[in-house]
Each structure stands twice: as structure tokens, then as C-alpha cells.
Input
Amino acid sequence: MRGSAWLLADIALNIWALTIVKALGLDFPAVQLVFIRAVVGLLLVLPWVALRYDQLRTTDRLPLHLLRVALATLTLTASFFAVARLPFALFTALSFTRPLVLMAMAAVLLGERIPRGRWGAALAGLAGVLIAVGPDPDGWTWGMVALCVTVIGGSATTIVTRTLNGTPPMVMMLFYTGGLALCSAPFALLGWVPVSGSVLLALVAAGVFAQAAQYCFLRAHWLADTGVLGPLSYVSFLATTLVGFFVFSEVPGLETIAGAAVITLAALAVTRF
Output
């Protein structure tokens, strides 16, 4: 498979996982869904750990690993909360602002020099957000707040991941899944809602899809350049729009489509300047 095929598989698997979370997200606390997803991921990673356990002996920069886990737990919990409460198309459109936020964080935290053209693209992306959400103050719900936390937290997680460059993938995934499980467990158990057999099976499937998507994502970026994969990732907006329409009876408004177009163009411009 080529890099583009692996990325399309990543997009499809992530959408399947998020569709399950969206369908069940109003019935269970978001942190409980994160805990179940983390436990499933950890069980899938453990055989890999058994084969490569020697890599754990050279693990260093523990504080950065812990910071990455804490940020990932916050980001994924906010994401699950938001996707259950927002139209799928809007959730995806505003998620495209992450490259713009990441650029700003890289400038502030890592001291990267950002060309003026990229700052202009970032302002255009902000305009796209305002178009997508609309001028109505009622549009800024708790779901929107959670999505903002998702974008900022996800960008911060990426910054920390960059500083861990060179760490073996197995170590990264073990810290991610195991850390998610440990961090989310106390909060999940405090507000635990009983899960029936069929629902538990669906949540386990979501965890499997999400973990498989991570593997596909890594394979995609191993086989192809980011410049090729970046534009292709925006296929997810079309896919989630169709899922929202056929599965959840959501009809995106013109403002969502227009805002998504502006945000997408702005994010693409960031990679061109």
C-alpha cells in the first residue's frame, strides 16, 4: 500500500471510531469512553511491548512523556465530549484549525520563525471559524468550548511529541495507551455508568478502530511526504458530512460549508508559504 492509501485507511478508521463515540456520547461520561478506549489500546499494544521490551531500558525524558499523556487525556476527553454535541461536519471543519494553532505554538514555545504569509493564513483561518460558527452567541455551546480545548490541547500534544523525536514508536504508544488508562481511570470510575453487552462491544470496536488508525497514520507518514498527505486529509470533511447526513440526519448549513472551505484553504496555505 502507498502512503496515500494508508492515510485513507486512517481517515476511515477514525471516522468509524468517532461515529460510535458520537452515537453513544450522550449516554456516558466522555472520560469513561476515553478509559475504555485506552484499555483496549493498551491490550493491543502489550504483545508488541513483549517483543520489544528491551527498548524500555533506554527510555528517558520521563517528565515530557508524562506531560504528553496528561495533554492527550485532556484532548481526547474534550474531543469525545464535543463530537457527541456538535454536528459532525462542524466538528471536523473546526478541527482543521489545528495546523494554524500548532504554527502559533511553535513560534511561541519553540522559537520557530514564521513567515508573514503564514500569519496571514492564520488570520484567514480565524475568519473561517467565525463564518462556520456564525454570529449567533448561542452557537458557542459547551460543545464548542470542548472543541476549542481539543484543538489547543492537541496542538500542545504535538509540540511535546516533537521534542520526543527519536523515541521508539513502541515506547510512545505504550506511554500513550497506558498513560491514558491511568489518568482517566479515577474520573471514569467516580462517574461510571453501567455498560450493557452490546454497547460494550461497540465501544471495544471503537477502541480497535482508533488503535488501528494510529498504525495506519504512522505507516502513511513513513511512506509519503507530509506535503502529499496534508491535502488528502481534508477528505475527512466530506466523509463526516456524509456520515452526519445519513447516520445522524444532520444537514450542514451554508455557513458551515463556507467556513470549512476558508479554514481548509488557510491550512493548505500554511504548508505552501
About this structure: Residues 11 and 72 are 19 Å apart (CA to CA).
